[in-house]
Amino acid sequence: MLQSDFDEFIQTNRSKLKGRSDPERIKLFIDWCNKYGIEELIIRLSGESKSFFDKSYFLDFTTKGILLRKKSWSRKLVDTGYVAGMAPSPYMLVSDKLKLNDIPKRTLAQTRDINTQKKNPSNHYIPYTDIIYFDMTRGIQTLVTNMFGSTLRHNFLSFMTEENSYSFMLPVGKNGQFEKIHFWLSAIVPFDVTCL
Predict the structure, then answer these.
(1) Lower Cβ count inside 10 Å, N or C end of the chain?
(2) In which element (H, E) is residue 76 found?
(3) What is the pLDDT of residues 110-132, one digit of tens each?
(4) Which residues have CB under 8 Å from 14's CB, separation 6+?
(5) Residue 142 CA neighbour count, 13 Å, CB half
(6) Could you tell me the pTM of the whole model?
(7) 3-state secondary structure of 52
(8) Collapsing DSSP states into helix, strand and coil, what is residue 182?
(9) From its phi and psi, is residue 149 left (phi > 0), alpha (psi between -120 and 50) or beta?
(10) Are 178 and 138 within 8 A, CB to CB?
């Protein structure tokens, strides 16, 4: 989304945004994007397959679907920071802390490039309309310990389409608390998020 598009959204919806809760603001933003055919990144999670040696992904939740992007091995090994969170535009709707000048140009370019990323053969895109089942499971399953001896904690995310099923571990250190992830996913996806 271009800054001019975001400014137009703010100007045309200023009165509707006042007094609304954060999820209501995000939902209004998603509806506006869908009305004008704009696909925008809303939330990014970091997901891993069941084994450490399997693939790791960025799970990009957009206004219309989920984009699964494989992480490179180097990114998987050095990705120590907090990954989960809202994309810049939706975050500016719920926080006064972030201003456009604070966002690196590289980050803005990545969030605007969804259509190009959907065409990349190493990525996989699932429209929300194809998803027939979606659940999150709270978990502190001890799969392995890290080199410091502390256990690695994960929550779990699964969803299914007519053709495939997908399962991911969501590392707590990279994605945050189960309740926050469940809260925001429930606010942005157009179906029920089953909580187990």
Answers:
(1) C
(2) helix 73-78
(3) 555 677 778 888 889 999 999 99
(4) none
(5) 5
(6) 0.83
(7) coil
(8) helix
(9) left
(10) yes
